[in-house]
Design a protein that fits this description.
This protein has 12 helices and 9 strands. By secondary structure, it is α/β, with parallel strands linked by helices. The relative contact order is 0.14. 46% of the residues lie in helices and 18% in strands. It folds into 2 domains: 7-210, Spore Coat Polysaccharide Biosynthesis Protein SpsA, Chain A, CATH 3.90.550.10; 217-295. Strands 1, 2, 3, 4, 5, 6, 7, 8 and 9 form a 9-stranded mixed sheet that branches.
Length: 301
């Protein structure tokens, strides 16, 4: 049996002390088990809590932004360039891999030379009902094989192409196709480029991580403004919007069945805010830059 590939875990951080311990403990167990993980590369955006101390205690290599403003793509690309592994394992600071059998399925998917990346299932522990339903749709229980055809198909809920919150990329592919410089959804932009270049991507639900959000209305608007702007630039916003109506109806039915009719007003209001943010983001190119900076969450020039 050949040894596993060398894996570099890449984690962008900012004030993540509340969630990092669980992630770092899981990565520590992987390193001790000898399943390929050789290093943790963290790129920090100026944390003011105990994040840096936690990373140093875990033996992570710590990078900064090099004087540049934070960008979802640029930060990950900077860390990937400094990494030494054959496989780049991208994680966010608030994921917690489930159990001790999550890395092998991702690495097994990459054994096929045509596969550029593999991403795992995100279990929405602690998420709001609206975010839980979306995660259940995007990260279902069946594996998926994504090809060039998926890059040209309609995009929307349930058709996620990749996730760098919990996903692995072949380093040789990243060298030729780094994360594109978009406001947000850089993982979808990367997947489009990789699939159109003839690579494939695998969704492997046997690799699981806990990752849930409980956003308020304000953050839901800002994040979906960024999402609408980015997907519009990628040519995906139209199909995503058209698929949103059916998703909304299915969500309300699910919320009512799980949480009761009393939860419906919040779900309707939350989705209205999310949809408004998304549609405003689609129009960002028409807005004054100062207004776009206030409406979005990600930094803008």
């Amino acid at each position: 049996m050949s040894p596993p590939p060398r894996v570099s875990a890449i984690v962008p951080t900012l004030n993540g002390a509340a969630t990092l311990p669980a992630l770092l403990a899981s990565l520590g167990r992987e390193r001790a088990a000898g399943r390929g993980l050789v290093e943790i590369v963290a790129i920090d955006s100026g944390s003011r809590d105990a994040t840096v101390d936690l990373l140093r205690a875990a033996g992570a290599r710590l990078l900064d932004l090099g004087g540049a403003p934070f960008g979802h793509a640029s930060a990950r690309n900077r860390a990937a360039a400094a990494a030494e592994g054959d496989v780049l394992l991208f994680l966010t600071q608030d994921v917690e891999p489930a159990g001790d059998a999550w890395l092998p399925p991702l690495l097994a998917a990459l054994e096929d030379a045509v596969v550029a990346g593999a991403f795992g299932r995100q279990v929405p522990r602690g998420a709001s009902p609206e975010e839980e339903f979306l995660a259940r749709v995007n990260y279902a229980g069946r594996p998926r094989r994504l090809t060039r055809a998926d890059a040209e198909a309609a995009f929307g809920p349930g058709t996620t192409l990749f996730s760098n919150a919990f996903g692995a990329v072949r380093r040789s592919v990243w060298r030729t196709i780094p994360f594109p410089d978009v406001i947000m959804s850089e993982d979808q932009a990367w997947a489009l480029a990789a699939l159109r270049a003839g690579h494939e991507i695998r969704y492997e639900p046997r690799a699981e991580a806990y990752h849930g959000h409980r956003s308020g209305f304000r953050r839901a608007f800002h994040r979906n403004f960024d999402s609408g702007s980015s997907l519009q630039s990628l040519g995906l916003a139209g199909s995503a919007w058209r698929g949103g109506g059916g998703h909304f109806v299915r969500e309300l039915r699910w919320v009512a069945s799980r949480r009761g009719a009393s939860a419906l007003p919040h779900a309707v209001a939350f989705e209205a805010v999310r949809m408004l943010g998304f549609q405003c983001g689609r129009l960002e190119r028409l807005l004054p830059k100062t207004l776009a900076r206030r409406l979005g969450e990600a930094p803008r020039p």
